[in-house]
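Researcher: Re-running this chain for the archive, since the previous output was lost when a drive failed. Same request as before.
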Amino acid sequence: MSKQISKYLDAFPSTHFYITKDEFLFYLFQEGNEKYLYRRNINQHHKEAVKVCDEDFSKQTYWPFEYNEKESLLYFISDTDNLENYNIFTIDCKTRSITQITHNKYTQMYALNSTKDLLLYSDRKHHTSIGYDSDVYLLDLSSMTKKLLMTTTDEDHYKVTWSGASFSHDNKKVIFRVDYQSKRLKSNFLEVDITTGKKKLLLPSNLESATLHLLGNRHQKYLYFICEVNQQKNIYRFDCENSKIKQLSNFKENIHQFIAEKDISKSNNVLGLIKNKEDDQVSIRKYSLVNDSLKLNSENTLKGNFDFFDYQNNLWLNHDSFDTPRTLVQLKEDLKLTEFKINLGKENIEDISRCRYEFHQYETFDGNKVDSYFILPKGEVKAVLVTAFYGGNNFYHFIYNLFAEYGIATFSPSVRGSMNVNPAWRKLIYGDLGGDEILDVIWAARYVRDTLNIPEHKIGISGGSHGGYATLRAITMPEKFKGFDTRFNYGAAICAAGFADLVDFYKTSNIPDWLVQMLGKYDEKKYLERSPISYFDNLSCPLLVLHGTNDARVSPSSMEVFIEKLKQSDKEYEIFISEGQGHHTNNKELRIIEIQKRLDFLKKHLLS
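Model: Regenerated structure tokens:
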């Protein structure tokens, strides 16, 4: 059976792609159970690629973020033993040597200036009742001298968060995003004078939002940014000389993505991408920043699913769908696709494209319509697995196609809280984790039952991380919740890297601020009320639990009480703990074992 799984894994040996300005492609390549970094020209095949170093990246995180062409240095974020103790490293492509640049507890914000001789970064420290405190440093890469720019304390309500940064063209000031009390609800931009250390917030309170992004990472007179107020993302301009802010767009529809060159002042172009899921197409628009307005220059509609990937000399798009593996495609100035593409996996996809898909909308408990996809076998539907969270995205994943080979369909809904619909839908989950979005999941399962005329015991539920929690919450939900009947007789459930104890999660996770955003300020009574451990007796379907011992984002301890209850009960369950793995499983052998356990579990409980 593992050969069937290996067929998919072996079809995609390359991951973690990064395209440089001079059009070299860096990527990780699977060799047996190990992963190594390679580099090649975008026109070359892997056989012509050069192995960059001898480091095995299956044992650690790898996020490339900048390449210094002059010095042949690749900058990336990594950790040790998948523990998410993130730091900045470089690989010298000439000497094949790796150097650790920072020695932080948790690197969260980082950026290089345009000449790539200054590195700005933060070191996140302890978490308090009003958020995370951090130190922010500026490192001179020529002399390797480090300067402390600022430190946040309890007196600072705006905390450093995950963010890029923008250097002024004279390298005298830096601007980066800060988050009010680390709640992920109100962000602002902080400007820091590199010489004096003087700080100032740039935006008025009415422009603070959960979604706030810089366009580009260089600025002269103007700083351009994306802000989400009035339930839509729009483009704004900040005048660095007089601090005046002007809204340049007034979009009435949801723009899923924006992208601009790093030095936006060179082209003054911004591109937007709009998805039409019902018609299975995207529209790409090119806007020019002209005087005090945003002008639409051109627009093109592409059939299928596309996402922005990178914008250096050329604009690159991801292209994939549930039944079509991912490729990188290039867009011309007129927004037409070139014939050139980079295949990121096996070119002959017939034996790994085993599903078809349909877009659906179903009515949930409060009358809202929920965007969803059925990912269906090409033959008979024998069972269905509902995605508990992170659904509604049309992208290739081998697991959908593997399950489809056995007649197992997947139903993937964008329940409230999902980021792929619109800002208003996303915000409905804030303060209500384990509430209405779980009702959306239950209504999804009922829609599957009624639409496919399939019995409930042939319908399972599955999720990872937040989705793992949502799975546990759905199968242990109080029978009456907010006046609604929540009963559904699932045939099976799979919880991967999930959490059953929200109190423990808040105390042990490296992202407790996420839980504050989702459920509000720490309140033990409220957190326990939304914890699956509090309703364990409601569990009535077979459950498979998967977790990594080194998971710092969702500590295994947040599942310990639930697992102990399972062991003391007569309920049907299976548990598999992956030794040495973090929030995701990077070890190929362990991945095969985990996938095999999922498949065997579903065959036993949904197909028998």
